[in-house]
Amino acid sequence: MAKKTEVTRLKQRVSRRLLKLPGVQGVGVERGDGKDDYVLVVHVEDDDDSTRDAVKQTTDADAVRIVKGGKFRKQEKSP
Q: How far apart are CA 39 and CA 31, in angstroms?
């Protein structure tokens, strides 16, 4: 179980390195499975073994959730 402050610090420490990895599209903090449990969420284009291994090596933490979501695209501005 990880507290929100711990996961937020992890995000601040590793997000730039994660975003430089091929296939990583975004990094955030979300609630985990418990009441006060939080995880670092890494959004990836493809959830393959090489991407998963690179994320695990970069974060070196247990409170990480990898989410396959495809390529992020810039949203068009509304008129």
A: 6
Count of beta carbons in the 10 Å neighbourhood of residue 68: 13
In the structure encoding, which two tokens stand for residue 50, read together?
């090489």
In angstroms, rounded to a whole number, what is the distance separating the alpha carbons of residues 20 and 4?
24
On the 0-12 / 13-18 / 19+ scale of CB atoms within 10 A, 53 is: exposed
In sign, the C-alpha dihedral spanning 27, 47, 30, 76 is positive
Residues 4, 71: Cα–Cα separation, whole Å: 27
Model confidence, pTM: 0.85
For residue range 1-58, what is the model confidence (pLDDT) as tens digits? 789 999 999 999 999 999 999 999 999 999 998 888 999 999 999 889 999 999 999 9
SS3 9: helix
